[in-house]
Design brief:
- This protein is α/β, with parallel strands linked by helices and 344 residues long.
- The chain has two domains: 137 residues, Rossmann fold (3-Layer(aba) Sandwich), CATH 3.40.50.720; 187 residues, Dihydrodipicolinate Reductase, domain 2 (2-Layer Sandwich), CATH 3.30.360.
- A nine-stranded mixed beta sheet has the order 14-13-12-11-7-10-9-8-15.
- A hairpin with a 5-residue loop joins strand 9 and strand 10.
- Helix 4 runs parallel beside helix 5 and helix 6 runs parallel beside helix 9.
- The longest helix has 20 residues.
């Protein structure tokens, strides 16, 4: 088992959760931080126990031969350029979602990663929480039959009381409700149902409460998806202006049963009369401190050890982003959008 030395780009809220996770896992050693701020390496060591060099110049950071993996934790608009430069420098990558705020940048990122033959892991960590693993196993074993409908909904109140609010309200940084947050529910649904999306149609609205007035884009969107197989449908609600506790709803329906959050029912299981309770961890918090980064990063280390691509690599994760870009265009135009418009 190799220990991979990590250079972190950006050291805000999400990066601190990454740092804590890296220090907990034997496969990783954080060795450098690239930041616009003048960070104190002594304070980093005191807070996290990490001996990290501090850089304020990205090119010098990338020239550090000690760095095996570059971990992109900066604001959304910076991901594309930083990823491409890191790939060109031969560094493996961990990339926070969203990969990019537009299709063109996402294509360039995927192309750079493939061209330089580096490995990547996009932070769709909801794939690694136990409830998603259980749903995936049940579906793959055929216990609910042929899946024909699924929905996964994200309800969160990202208001002034929440850390990311100050920059999340800006369209050039947050992007959209789906890109900044609801993309977790979109990716989870696509991961569970499989297949490719053919067409999307999206509606939007906004909570009229005054605290959400600073947002420069619609804070609630509902997206309907038609899959290429012609028989599967999906629905995503991305609600970042909810005045309620955090809810991440999952419901996949098949010809012989269904999975719904921590519940399971199947006509293939003899004697099962009602919902059976699954002993699983739900996606029940928007706090990055509660995200299953440990499971995601440990899996990525296994992939690096075996010299294989992760299931959540950039090319795979970009399929989710393509659907998000199409959905956001549908919100803007008020018309259905074909995924053929986002072919590459």
């Amino acid at each position: 088992m190799k220990t991979y030395k990590v250079g972190m780009v950006g050291f805000g809220w999400v990066a601190t959760a990454h740092m804590t996770t890296f220090k907990e896992l034997p496969n990783f050693e954080p060795v450098a931080i690239m930041s616009r701020r003048e960070l104190d390496p002594g304070q980093i060591k005191a807070d996290y126990g990490a001996e990290a060099k501090i850089y304020n110049d990205y090119d010098k950071f990338l020239n550090d031969p000690d760095i095996d993996i570059v971990d992109i934790c900066t604001e959304h608009p910076l991901h594309a350029e930083q990823t491409i430069k890191a790939a060109n420098a031969g560094k493996n990558l961990i990339i926070e979602k969203p990969m990019a705020l537009n299709f063109e940048d996402g294509v360039k990122m995927v192309e750079a990663i493939k061209k330089n033959k580096v490995k990547s892991s996009v932070c769709f960590e909801c794939r690694f929480i136990s409830v998603t693993k259980a749903h995936k196993s049940i579906i793959d074993q055929g216990l609910i039959g042929d899946v024909y409908y699924g929905e996964c909904d994200y309800f969160h109140g990202i208001g002034p009381w929440y850390g990311q609010f100050r920059w999340n309200v800006k369209k050039k940084i947050g992007g959209s409700s789906l890109l900044t947050a609801g993309i977790h529910s979109l990716d989870t649904l696509l991961y569970l149902t499989g297949g490719r999306v053919d067409e999307v149609f999206s509606y939007s609205t906004t909570n009229p409460h005054e605290v959400y007035a600073p947002y420069e884009y619609p804070t609630t969107t509902v997206t309907l998806m038609k899959y290429q197989d012609g028989k599967t449908l999906g629905k995503i609600a991305s609600v970042i202006d909810a005045m309620q506790p955090y809810v991440f709803n999952m419901n996949i329906i098949g010809s012989h049963g269904a999975v719904k959050n921590d519940l399971f029912f199947s006509k293939k299981v003899e004697g099962l009369l009602n919902w059976a309770k699954l002993d699983v961890q739900l996606v029940d918090s928007g706090d990055v401190a509660h995200h299953p980064y440990a499971e995601q990063f440990a899996y990525y280390a296994e992939c690096l050890d075996a010299d294989k691509e992760a299931l959540n690599n950039a090319e795979n994760a970009f399929e989710t982003h393509r659907v998000a870009y199409a959905a956001d265009k549908s919100v803007e135009t008020g018309k259905p959008v074909s995924l053929s418009e986002y072919a590459y």
